[in-house]
Specification:
Layout (H helix, E strand, L loop, with lengths): L14 H19 L5 H8 L3 H7 L3 H13 L2 H8 L7 H28 L41 H19 L10 H17 L11 H10 L9
Length: 234
């Protein structure tokens, strides 16, 4: 029997939708506070009760691990790359791709760095000390307990995960530059690899303060036209 209109309830979020919403709200807080962020802060930012977090996640560690997984994942940046219009000139497409990839790597570095600095190690097997932070459905928020184990390779994406992510990103760039395949001396796969190599080196290599890093426009100009005024003149 269908209940009267006054008693009908709008369908709520699924557990996965609720988890995704909480992670999206938590990410900027995790980037700012690291593992010191409290579930009460996250709940306030999301406009939900703290108990709602613990219906979606077992505890704060599981929520932090979900934030790391989201930051490491490539789904968001792949959507950004797929949204670049193939009708744009090649240099414009590559500039937009460079900006999307820069934002992805900066978010990843900020989230992982903040968690590292505050003592969080991804996954329970990372060997954190006794929790004692009270950050559970039965206790109030308190300072997190930093683990005693040194940083491990597992704190970021696994090695095989990094290789898979690199392949997925390269393939997305290949699709982006494929309309200009006939203009390249190299295969689109090699051009895409060169583009990603230049971009990632630019973002990850520390430079002296006096050294200005390549701008996206300069990077793409070097990729497409080389560093010589007149290629072939030497």
């Amino acid at each position: 029997m269908t209940p009267p209109p006054s008693r009908r309830r709008a369908p709520g979020m699924s557990v996965e939708e609720r988890r995704a919403m909480i992670v999206a709200v938590a990410l900027p807080l995790v980037a700012e506070y690291g593992a010191a962020v409290t579930t009460s802060q996250i709940a306030r930012a999301a406009g939900i009760g703290e108990a709602t977090i613990f219906r979606a996640f077992k505890d704060k560690d599981e929520l932090l691990d979900a934030c790391v997984a989201e930051a490491v994942g490539t789904d968001h940046v792949l959507r950004e790359l797929a949204s670049v219009s193939l009708d744009e000139p090649l240099a414009v497409r590559l500039t937009e791709a460079a900006e999307a990839l820069r934002a992805h790597l900066e978010r990843l570095g900020t989230v992982i760095g903040a968690l590292h600095a505050s003592g969080h190690r991804r996954g329970r097997e990372a060997g954190a000390g006794p929790r004692g932070d009270g950050d559970s459905p039965r206790g109030g928020d308190g300072p997190p307990q930093a683990g005693n184990s040194p940083p491990r390779d597992g704190d970021g994406p696994p090695r095989d995960g990094r290789a898979e992510s690199a392949t997925v990103l390269r393939n997305a760039v290949v699709e982006l530059i494929a309309p200009d395949r006939a203009a390249f001396r190299l295969s689109p796969e090699k051009v895409a690899s060169a583009f990603l190599g230049l971009l990632f080196t630019r973002l990850q290599t520390p430079l002296a303060e006096a050294d200005a890093p390549l701008t996206p426009d300069e990077l793409i100009d070097v990729l497409l036209h080389g560093a010589l005024h007149h290629p072939g003149s030497t």
